[in-house]
Amino acid sequence: MISLRSILALSLGLPIIAVRATQYSLVKQYAGAHFFDGWDFYGNYDNLTNGDAIFVTASQAASQRLAFVNSAGNAIMKVDNKTNVVFNDKRNTVRISSKDRFAVGSVWIADMLHVPYGCSVWPAFWSQALDWPTGGEIDTFEAVNMESNSQISLHTVPGCTVVNAVQTSTLVNTTDCSFLANQNSGCAVGNPDPNSYGAAFAATGGGVFVTEFAETGISLRLTRPPTSVWFFSRGNVPNSLQGNASSVDTSSLGKPVANYPTGGCNVDRFFQPQKLIFDITLCGDFAGNPQTFAQTCSGFCYQDYVIGSPSNYDNAYFEVRSVRIFGTSPSVDITPGSSGASQDATSVLWLGLTGLSATLLFLLAL
Ligand SMILES: *[C@@H]1O[C@H](CO)[C@@H](O)[C@H](O)[C@H]1NC(C)=O
Ligand SMILES: *[C@@H]1O[C@H](CO)[C@@H](O)[C@H](O)[C@H]1NC(C)=O
Ligand SMILES: *[C@@H]1O[C@H](CO)[C@@H](O)[C@H](O)[C@H]1NC(C)=O
Ligand SMILES: *[C@@H]1O[C@H](CO)[C@@H](O)[C@H](O)[C@H]1NC(C)=O
User: Fold this and answer.
1) Ligand with an atom nearest the CA of residue 114
2) Is 132 in the pocket of ligand 1 (CB under 6 A)?
3) Is the minimum distance from the CB of 240 to ligand 1 under 6 angstroms?
4) What is the domain extent for residue 311?
5) pLDDT per residue as tens digits for the range 269-292
6) Domain total for the chain?
7) The model scores a pTM over 0.70
8) Dist. CA 313 → ligand 4 center (Å)
């Protein structure tokens, strides 16, 4: 299909690749037996969000069966539900972050069958740059305790706000993404789909989360603006996202659940290449906040759930079929985590060119 942008680009003789902002090709896939190869395990207690959790190392995760690929070929990441934890100790769980980082101009699509839930449980699938908060954070999926919905949020340095969002969610908590505002809750939007978390997520066969980390400027005038998150419960997953499609056109996905337009937040200014993260912590700053905890659970977060019998955690696991990364051009939107000097240079070059074309187009669109 020829988009308005393509026609404009053709008629102006601009390189077409720079303007297909909604067309992305597969650049990387985490799936199957090698799912965990591309990730680092945190290997320390939760010193990030004050959770009552120890994020195990890769070898502990393997030996304690807290991270493994199951017989269906799906990645499991779970909280220890075998150990009777004694008072003052923390419970073992998992936090992994991708070795590679993905630049503006990427889309990540996570297909999951189960997400962790239960009192004291705080799971998230999200991303952040090496420098936080300077390089930004995108929370695609986050929820706590027995809430009925998950939520989406961005966290940045001051100056990034939500203006004129084109989205289906009306559950807008806050529109200031600054980590200094609203106790760092970010510009959070509730996911209105009741199947976006908890037992309902699992019972309906899970679903697919799509995060578009889009190019600056390009869509300001021409189509839907950058950085969006979609969620499709299993029964609503569009054909284009089923199977192993090697490309995705985000303009075909309809209105996103959450949208962060350029008008209030220039992506290039507030975001740097993102590492993807899966983690499950317990209690801590969000799930353990007494007010938040009391909304859906009774008793005390640590004393009544984390310690003692492990059976509270039978549902505290991710089951992930795949995480697939798409870029505006194959293989160039990745910043490898180690020894990738030449590819780093390519990424930077690519972003430079994209930025230049975007600027040109932006000027033309005015
Ligand atoms: C958390 O602990 C790790 C390992 O000791 C350390 O490298 C890191 O700096 C700590 N982070 C914070 C925020 O304290
Ligand atoms: C957003 O609002 C909902 C409903 O009031 C609440 O449950 C949720 O914790 C809020 N999220 C944040 C990050 O404040
Ligand atoms: C999709 O790709 C994965 C990984 O290459 C493979 O295991 C799986 O069988 C493929 N599925 C389909 C429907 O082709
Ligand atoms: C722990 O959770 C898993 C997944 O729900 C379940 O299969 C298992 O029976 C639970 N209990 C123990 C002791 O592993």
Assistant:
1) 4
2) no
3) no
4) 4-365
5) 899 999 999 999 999 999 999 999
6) 1
7) yes
8) 8
